[in-house]
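Sample pair:
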Amino acid sequence: MKVKNNLRILMAQHKMNIQDVHERTGLSRTTISKLYNETSTTIGFDTIYQLCKLFDCDVSELLFLNDEESE
């Protein structure tokens, strides 16, 4: 199993780009970019909080478990 994220989908639904998310959350562009491109290996609680607050979503709408074998 692997933890995946829906940041790309949430950003598209809210018509936001990486710069928009950066400006509205104060998170670094690098952090947002790594999550967007799913190259991040860790995510901090503050990052999760800021993104959930921005998109008015629950953690389960941002992060999910994915069985790598089904890809």
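The mean pLDDT is 94.
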